[in-house]
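F.,

This is the one I mentioned.
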């Protein structure tokens, strides 16, 4: 019996494990894209609610709302939830990518030398995440401070 501590898994360098690593990496990208889609939907829907009811209340012949701030608060909540979802997904993505590039799994990637560095700028999805998060934060504060 071997008394030396081992990792959680025994990593075997085979073509099957290499392609499993690649499939997992692509699944991670798809998951991030789904999070981005959800965040964009929440931010967009929240912003639309604010704009729609703001324009609707300004029309002639429309009775004043009982709670005029309710659509703004709901919109802010949705936009905040969208930005929060994007931030959580970015954190989750970063954590899992670091795990996949740990020394234990680097040989599975099939790369050598400087190609082995997990450079996050290599993922265009991460660039989209950062851009959409910045837009969401801007929209949130624009509504909060009535810039729109």
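My design for it:
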């Amino acid at each position: 019996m071997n008394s030396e501590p081992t990792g959680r898994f025994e990593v075997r360098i085979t073509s099957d494990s290499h392609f499993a690593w690649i499939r997992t990496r692509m699944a991670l990208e798809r998951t991030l894209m789904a999070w981005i889609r959800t965040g964009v939907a929440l931010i967009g829907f929240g912003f639309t609610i604010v704009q729609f009811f703001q324009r609707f209340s300004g029309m002639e012949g429309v009775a004043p709302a009982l709670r005029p701030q309710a659509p703004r608060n709901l919109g802010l909540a949705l936009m905040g939830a969208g930005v929060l979802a994007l931030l959580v997904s970015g954190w989750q993505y970063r954590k899992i990518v670091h795990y996949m590039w740990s020394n234990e799994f680097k040989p599975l990637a099939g790369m050598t030398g400087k190609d082995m560095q997990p450079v996050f700028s290599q993922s265009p999805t991460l660039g989209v995440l950062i851009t959409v998060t910045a837009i969401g934060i801007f929209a949130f504060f624009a509504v909060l401070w009535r810039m729109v």
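Residues 15-58+66-144 form one domain.

Talk soon.
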